[in-house]
Write a structure and sequence with these properties.
This protein is of the alpha/beta class. The protein is built from eleven helices and 14 strands.
Length: 360
């Protein structure tokens, strides 16, 4: 029996409760006989995220609606608690995860032409800045007059910015805490002229194409005639290369994906047992996207204050899409979003592209 092989202790006597099948470990079976609660307690086992944050009533509602939908789904933002951010950083160092190093190689090789295209003295607006490392490497060639770092966590940014400001006193710097999934609305204090949005890493691929176009139109609407966008995008390539990047042999992407459940336990008070779930990440060439899911190894019931959901063995929760584009299609999307001219640079294998899109 598959469940019996999946983990020691899962020799699973089956029984029915309210008509639903339940799998019990032997230990749980004895516990139930002794009328001790059978459910493992996530907080006692130390699975609860330590950086739990309060979520709003509407975020909670959206999260529960996704978990209880016929095809369950959660937002990929739940990857990024503190541990998740470290796991993502580890992903970018994996041999299989080509996007980060391919993009860096494009910048290193073509930085002269890129700087010529963007010009100097702009207000560089770094979307999803994180530790600000990528933008920092552009300070020399692009010589921005101002640097605005945008990320969901302003606290995290402030640390990075105060270090950077010390090293580059000639650039005025601002940290902006903003959830970009709702669009990017810049405060009036950010100069309107010469805005250069910087959106690297193919984060645009984590939006659906419709959302991506809307997001890009939103950026365009915040540029004057002299504004522009410097953006990295992952390109369609052989399925085996993409599959390996999202299902690496060390299992770091698996940990990154499963950590979303741990994060949800922390913010929702749910009791996902991570040992019951496995990682699933693959490229679907028909939809031109990587899909990431977590899949149950066995039938489980997940509960949270005020609700619960039964998952059949093999049922999945969709956690992320990562779209891959053909350069021509992406270029057309930029133009539909209102950018008139697009210049692009790729690596020799045409795996990744950096585009500079301008309004004029
Ligand atoms: C952040 N984003 C661009 C990454 C990607 O490749 O879509 C997130 C990621 N998911 C799995 N591995 C990396």
């Amino acid at each position: 029996m598959m469940q019996a092989k999946s983990r020691e202790g899962r020799t699973a006597p089956l029984h029915k409760k309210n008509g639903a099948r339940k799998y019990l470990t032997l230990a749980n079976h004895h516990a139930e006989q002794a009328r001790i609660p059978t459910r493992r307690r996530t907080d006692e086992s130390g699975w609860r995220a330590t950086d739990a944050r309060e979520i709003s009533a509407s975020e909670r509602e959206t999260l529960i609606a996704g978990l209880t939908a016929p095809s369950a789904r959660i937002s990929s933002k739940y990857f990024y608690d503190s541990l998740g951010s470290h796991l993502f950083d580890a992903i970018t160092h994996l041999p299989e995860y080509y996007p980060t190093r391919t993009e860096a190689a494009i910048f290193a090789r073509h930085i002269g032409e890129i700087a010529q295209s963007t010009g100097t003295g702009s207000t560089l607006i770094d979307l999803g800045a994180g530790n600000c490392e990528k933008a920092r490497s552009l300070f020399g060639p692009l010589r921005p007059a101002q640097y605005v770092a945008v990320d969901i966590s302003a606290d995290y940014l402030r640390g990075a910015i105060s270090y950077l400001q010390h090293r580059h006193p000639e650039i005025a710097m601002t940290a902006l805490g903003l959830d970009m999934s709702a669009g990017v609305a810049l405060p009036a204090a950010v100069p309107a002229a010469r805005r250069l949005f910087f959106f690297p890493g193919s984060s645009i691929g984590n939006f659906t194409p419709e959302e991506a176009e809307l997001f890009l139109s939103g950026l365009r609407s915040q540029c004057h005639e002299d504004g522009g966008l410097l953006i990295g995008v992952d390109l369609v390539k052989d399925k085996s290369v993409i599959d390996a990047a999202y299902d690496d042999t060390l299992g770091v992407t698996a940990a990154f994906n499963l950590n979303a459940l741990r994060h949800i336990n922390a913010v929702l008070g749910s009791d996902f047992d991570l040992r019951d779930w496995r990682h699933c990440g693959f490229f679907d060439p028909g939809l031109s996207r990587v899909e990431m899911h977590v899949e149950t190894r066995l039938e489980v019931e997940v509960t949270w204050p005020g609700g619960s959901r039964q998952f059949e063995a093999g049922e999945r929760i969709h956690t992320e899409n990562s779209y891959k584009y053909r350069l021509e299609d992406f270029s057309m999307m930029l133009q539909r979003a209102g950018f008139r001219s697009v210049r692009s640079w790729t690596d020799q294998r045409n795996w990744f592209a950096v585009c500079h899109a301008t309004v004029r």
